[in-house]
Write a structure and sequence with these properties.
104 residues; mainly alpha; Arc Repressor Mutant, subunit A; two-stranded antiparallel sheet
């Protein structure tokens, strides 16, 4: 478990410590919310990270216990990010981009 100390966000509050994996999930939640105008469903995270549904659900519960998100069971797309966006890492793509453009 690789924990990072993240830089300060603003003058008075420090960013929470979280693992690289937690950082990627929170970054995905923010990015998905910005692009789509709504929080991701667990299925959206499952598709992006290519993991089984129980793994995603356990990650959501872990992020909630860690105080990184707020989530309500049985309410669709209820994930709310509680971390300042300045504390989030850059999201790493978990998918290879395939293009049909030839290189010369």
């Amino acid at each position: 478990m690789n924990q990072k100390s993240l830089p300060l966000s603003g003058e008075h509050s420090a960013c929470p410590n979280f693992t690289d994996k937690h950082g990627q999930y929170t970054a995905f939640i923010r990015t998905h919310s910005l692009i789509n105008g709504r929080a991701p469903a667990e299925h959206d995270m499952q598709r992006f990270f290519a993991v089984a549904p129980p793994s995603i659900h356990q990650m959501v519960l872990t992020l909630e216990r860690s105080g990184l998100i707020r989530w309500q069971a049985r309410i669709a797309r209820s994930i709310e990010l509680l971390v300042d966006h300045n504390c989030l890492p850059v999201m790493q793509s978990s998918q290879t981009v395939i293009t049909s453009v030839r290189r010369y």
